[in-house]
């Protein structure tokens, strides 16, 4: 092939490649969120969830009877802003599962409005929990009186017990939307709840012989995990992710953690945030105050996910990983 023909051939290949990238359906985002990724030949419900734990729950119940897609990946519900691809995704969705409780429902409403899909139902799963099953956020300051209140902690998915209840709500919504496959949703939900019960049993066994269950969490997120596994969260580094700890808050945290009668040595950090610096400052202060062997332990609150890791069993694996890392460092 002479040089002119070679250049023409190369140009043709380049043009075809460019056109392929522009034609809908030929390319999608890595996590398959584009609108045109909804299967055209699937008659079942089209379900969207806000972030990864809800994907595991919904996909486990849906099986092959419904299509489930996840919105948030590298940014979790505290930091997420919907993109054009996210808006495109929900234009055809029937159901949108969110936690609610002040965490992600407003972003879902924005997506519904911008997509023009008025028929999409947004289901706030956390709002369906009994009020007695909800916890207040952690108090990060000392001055409070009888009327002192905090917002509800929305991190209900970090308790396998609460997660099982969310799965039941998802099952009921799918049955209502698609009654022809109700038996399948019932069976798969029951099987998945058994797996969640096994995660709880696993954690209970891991922590049962620990004599010191005190810890400091990175952000205000562990009330339900603490309750489920009978741990003792004595403080938090920051009320909200990305918010720096003030000098006053750090001083109070050091005071709490260095009490001679009940020192705290376990400090949790989170992989999705740059937490090591604040956690290390606290750890060093504990060392200087005579606390024996203070340690940083990574705890994933499951708010972000790598798209290639997202599977129905992702939640179980991640929760077991959290339990293993924490139990290893507790005494």
From TrEMBL:
GO MF, one example: metal ion binding
Pfam families the UniProt entry points to: ZnuA
Spans through the membrane: none
Coiled-coil region(s): none
Domain of life: Bacteria
Leader peptide range in chain numbering: 1-17
Keywords: Signal, Transport
InterPro entries: Bact_metal-bind_prot9, Lipoprotein_PsaA-like, ZnuA-like
Gene Ontology biological process: cell adhesion; metal ion transport
Family that this chain belongs to: Belongs to the bacterial solute-binding protein 9 family.
PANTHER family per UniProt: HIGH-AFFINITY ZINC UPTAKE SYSTEM PROTEIN ZNUA, HIGH-AFFINITY ZINC UPTAKE SYSTEM PROTEIN ZNUA-RELATED
Entry protein name: Zinc ABC transporter substrate-binding protein
Originating organism: Gemmata obscuriglobus
């Amino acid at each position: 092939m002479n040089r002119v023909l070679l250049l023409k051939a190369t140009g043709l290949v380049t043009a075809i490649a460019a056109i392929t990238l522009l034609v809908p359906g030929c390319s999608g985002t890595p996590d398959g969120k584009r609108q045109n990724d909804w299967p055209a030949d699937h008659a079942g419900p089209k379900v969207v969830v806000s972030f990864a734990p809800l994907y595991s729950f919904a996909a486990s119940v849906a099986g092959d009877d419904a299509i489930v897609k996840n919105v948030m990946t590298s940014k979790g519900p505290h930091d997420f802003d919907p993109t054009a691809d996210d808006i495109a995704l929900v234009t055809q969705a029937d159901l949108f599962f969110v936690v609610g409780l002040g965490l992600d429902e407003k972003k879902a409403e924005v997506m519904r409005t911008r997509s023009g899909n008025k028929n999409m139902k947004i289901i706030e799963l956390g709002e369906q929990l009994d009020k007695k099953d909800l916890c207040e956020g952690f108090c990060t300051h000392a001055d409070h009186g009888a009327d002192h209140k905090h917002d509800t902690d929305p991190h209900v998915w970090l308790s396998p017990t609460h997660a099982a209840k969310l799965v039941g709500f998802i099952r009921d919504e799918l049955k209502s939307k698609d009654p022809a496959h109700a038996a399948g949703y019932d069976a798969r939900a029951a099987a998945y709840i058994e797996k969640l019960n096994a995660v709880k049993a696993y954690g209970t066994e891991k922590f049962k012989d620990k004599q010191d269950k005190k810890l400091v969490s990175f952000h205000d997120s562990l009330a339900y995990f603490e309750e489920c596994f009978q741990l003792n969260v004595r403080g938090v580094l920051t009320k909200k992710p990305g918010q720096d700890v003030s000098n006053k808050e750090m001083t109070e945290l050091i005071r709490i953690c260095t009490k001679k009668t009940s020192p705290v040595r376990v400090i949790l950090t989170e992989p999705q945030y740059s937490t090591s610096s604040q956690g290390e400052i606290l750890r060093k202060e504990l060392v200087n105050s005579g606390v024996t062997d203070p340690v940083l332990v990574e705890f994933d609150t499951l708010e972000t996910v790598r798209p290639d890791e997202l599977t129905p069993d992702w939640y179980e694996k991640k929760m077991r990983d959290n339990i293993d890392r924490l139990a290893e460092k507790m005494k």
